[in-house]
Amino acid sequence: MAKNFTITSGEDWAQTVEVISDDGGPLTDIDTGLIELQVQDDCGNVVLSGSSDDGTIIKPGESGMFTWRFPWSRVSALPSGQKYKVACRLTVDSAITMLFLEGLVVEERGFTWR
Q: Are the beta carbons of 58 and 67 closer than 8 angstroms?
């Protein structure tokens, strides 16, 4: 895995991703395909998931880009200090393409909103 995403305790997890095609331009299949994201723990259990169908992932209008947002009410179930795997895939017609497989770290900042 090339990089880690980071969630800070007490915050929503929102991220915008731009996917580039082999020719260096935006991957335009993103604009029409189904995008799915899954977060799994070390045992392979799915601890978060979302898609462009359920509204967790949105396409903001710029070709090749998408954004996801998991509210803190869903993210708070992930203990601080744990590492997770994040995978994202794109389905267009019946073709499935893995967009990325990365790490996810949940950081505790020493402050909890009450």
A: yes
